[in-house]
Amino acid sequence: MTADVRLLAGPFDAAAEIDRFVAANSDAGGVASFIGRVRPGGGVEALELSHYEPLTLAGMQALADEVENRWQVTGLAMVHRTGVMLPGEAIVLVAATAHHRREAIESVDFAMDHLKGDSWFWKREKRAGEWHWIEPRERDFSDLARWQQ
Amino acid sequence: MTADVRLLAGPFDAAAEIDRFVAANSDAGGVASFIGRVRPGGGVEALELSHYEPLTLAGMQALADEVENRWQVTGLAMVHRTGVMLPGEAIVLVAATAHHRREAIESVDFAMDHLKGDSWFWKREKRAGEWHWIEPRERDFSDLARWQQ
Amino acid sequence: MSLKLVFLGRLADAAGAAEREVTTVPSIAALIAGLEPELSTALAGPRVKIAVNGKIVGDRAVFTLRDGDEVAFLPPVSGG
Amino acid sequence: MSLKLVFLGRLADAAGAAEREVTTVPSIAALIAGLEPELSTALAGPRVKIAVNGKIVGDRAVFTLRDGDEVAFLPPVSGG
User: Fold this and answer.
1) ipTM, interface predicted TM-score of the complex
2) Interface touch A15/B37, C-beta < 8 Å
3) Pairing relationship of beta strands D70-74 and D2-7 according to DSSP bridges
């Protein structure tokens, strides 16, 4: 199995990616997925994700390898935006198939926790015309800690 | 919030349902979902799900209510096929949005465990031209037991 | 003067049809006893649940059937 | 005879640009010490990681820089 791991500089259609993933994994009984988007409302006018290619993409590949080691996934896709995104635009898609439904769901859960809390992305939000850097959140560390038992 | 709970007698496009769900929940930051399909291969020529409308749909509605009570879901869809399905066809789609990503993922996990192990569906498979009823599986009970702690 | 019986899952095979009309009888025990022996045995097991007019019957021993009731026989549901 | 510096996240604001070229110096300590004081302070913190040519540096005290190296300064990543 080869994981489909991509960094995209421009907008992507997350539902179409799921459609493609389902078609590419036609032998799978189930597909778990998570789509993360820029939340409309709350005063965020834009979101920018910076990355450092040599680390960011390599880190996502290493994460995909770890998912494959922990669960019997038969298909895995991780697609992540970079650059400036507007409210409603997709930031990230993770989709997985596995031998059992719960493994597929856990794989997605694990990959999302690590993409959010343990990846080489730097994020800032534009509010009232001003950019503000986003710091790490306590919740991200506690989400990650769940997997270290 | 009103959950979108449906029993469908004919084929449906699960990725298109996710697309519609994402559009209907445009204020949500993330969408977790699971698509279950008739697994191709393994000798299954067709799958038939019988239901008893007064219990099956009411049971799915009650399950949706329970999901809403346990998690702060902001959107929930449960779409389930009935009748005869061919390999590759979608059987079930669950999609959820919630205030936090992990709540959305857990809601989908919970709903799938209960749809699979605790719903009014009777299932038979056609193998080599013969229909065989499917009995409950031990794994379904253990999946359900996780939520009763 | 009749009850509508609904047989789900493999019980439809045992009954030879998914539905059947029978003359009204007052109790579930009498209803089951009045069917052909093999079907009667299949329905009497503790794992078969019974719904009357779409509601699961709690204690079938004390339940009174009425004309026009729909009585559904529900074997254990299938897994994943 | 130069190093390429890359500043990520808020460090790009502190540096005034995402990238910069500087004359090669042998150690990371010398590199940081040679920058303007505010930037130097921002880079010296223990939460700022350093990557050379795409690999995180383990012990920056003993790392030797070479002509043409790309040195990236990585502040803590952002959360969810």
Assistant:
1) 0.88
2) no
3) parallel
- Closest Cα partner for A11 from A59, A83, A94? A83
Question: Looking at this protein, which amino acid is placed at residue D37?
Answer: P
State how far the Cα of A62 lies from the Cα of B52, in Å rounded to an integer.
48
User: Residue D28's closest CA among D55, D54, D52, D53?
Assistant: D52
d(CA B54, nearest CA chain A) in Å: 28
Residues B65-95: tens digit of each pLDDT: 999 999 999 999 999 999 999 999 999 999 9
Q: Are B63 and B12 in contact (CB under 8 A)?
A: no
Alpha helices in A9-137 (DSSP H): 14-24, 53-70, 101-117
Binding partners of B (≥3 Cβ pairs within 8 A) = A, C
Architecture of the B2-129 domain: Alpha-Beta Complex (3.90)
Q: How far is CA C9 from CA A73, A85, A121, B39, in A?
A: 33, 51, 53, 21
Which residues on chain D are in Cβ contact (under 8 Å) with A145? none
| pTM of the full structure | 0.90
Helices (H), chain D: 10-15, 28-33, 37-44
Residue C34, CA distances (Å) to A21, B21, B92 in order: 55, 50, 39
Q: Do chain D and chain A touch with ≥3 beta carbon pairs under 8 Å?
A: yes
**Chain-chain contact of D79 with A134 (C-beta, under 8 angstroms):** yes
- Look up residue B130 and give its two tokens: 């013969």
Which residue type does C14 have?
Answer: A
| CATH fold group of domain C2-74 | Ubiquitin-like (UB roll) (3.10.20)
User: Any idea where the domains of chain B sit in the sequence?
Assistant: 2-129
CB pairs under 8 A between A and D: 57
Give yes or no for A35 touching B (CB within 8 A).
yes
pLDDT in tens, C41-78: 999 888 899 999 999 999 989 999 999 999 999 998 87
Could you give the strand order of the β-sheet that contains D19-23, starting from the edge strand earlier in sequence? D19-23, D2-7, D70-74, D49-52, D55-56
